[in-house]
Automatic annotation (TrEMBL):
Residues 64-79 have a biased composition (Low complexity). It is found in: Cell membrane. The keyword Membrane applies. This is Membrane protein.
Amino acid sequence: MSRLPHWLDAVGAGLTRLSRRLDERRARTEAEDALPDWARPAPGEHTAPSPAAPEEPAPPAGPPSGADEPSGPPAAASAPVPPHAPPRPDPVAAVPWGVRVAAEAGWRLLVLAGTLWVLMRVISAVQLVVLAFVAGLLITALLQPTVAALKRRGVHRGLATALTFISGFVVMGLIGWFVVWQVMDNTDNLSRQLEQGLRDLKEWLRTSPFHVTQEQIDNVTDNLTHALRSNTEEITSAGIEGVQVIIETLTGIVLAMFTTLFLLYDGPKIWRWVLKLVPSAAREGVAGAGPRAWATLTAYVRGTVIVAMIDAICIGIGLYFLKVPMAVPLAVFIFLFAFIPLVGAVISGALAVVVALVTQGPFTAAMALVVVLAVQQIEGHVLQPFILGRAVRVHPLAVVLSVAAGGMVAGIGGAVVAVPLVAVTNTVVGYLRAYGRGEVPGERVR
């Protein structure tokens, strides 16, 4: 009877181990039922037992022999451990490839758009300084070949710069003075011809097939007179603003002159200083793109001057033979407006036709229109492709959009600099793309 307690203890321990195994199996079954269908094990496939509950050796079948062993409480059952869940897929891999590409491109476009917006705000804040610098850059591109030619002939750099700078601005000043002088000298004659032309125009409208009556003409004249009288304050304020515009224009001219002088004299040194601001990893590519951008700008400015001069001479000769008043000032206006691509030619040509219509009549105006259209067609199909060449060729859609955007941002000055900016940007981007593919060597920076 002394061995009976030991035997009962062994039976109790065995029942405890059996209960613990049943609890573990029930926990595994509940965990498998909670898993989705794709994560459940296949039929006949068993989940490995948890390492937290190692298998204990089986007790002897009978009661132990020998000395009596102290009895004690059965071992406490450990908590069931659920099986490990299958690893989840990487979130990046779960996103479709097209969405990832769109997201990568989208945040880069947002950064570029933000940068352009900030740049436009800065340019708007210092618009006068920016336009003066760009104007000086364009004038430098026009005059720099003359400085280079004088230096090749042995002239000192300072003397060559001074001679080119003074002669260039003297010529531009004489052109402006000539235009103002011609306009002021012909103002009285033009006024008389304008009045006579308006009377002739009224008479022509009254007897024309459009059936315009004298009453309708008088109503239009009265409305114009009333509009002028009622807007006297606005016209006066516009005149005051015009004085401010004149002051800003003079300030911009002075800044452009100083910019041109220093760029002509120290252009290479200024370029080397700008290169030091570029990160060293990108410096070699920028050093190679710079001379090509300058060559494009120089070719554009020189080609535009030549084309504008040919347009002005041809149209001016046509207006002179048609006996249109102020033919020479109109030719100068055509030369100046030619620096605004597409839009400038339309405005200057329309001005010449209107002057011919008011002063000489419809027939002379029609002939002036024929002359203007013929010269512009020759310019667009012969002169520009031959003189400008492929180096500065820009698609007409890009020209229209750039001129419109430049005019909206900075007025007439923005419209003038928009196309050369697009041409230079096209050259730089093309070179950097080729440089990135290793198709062109970079320029070494000293």
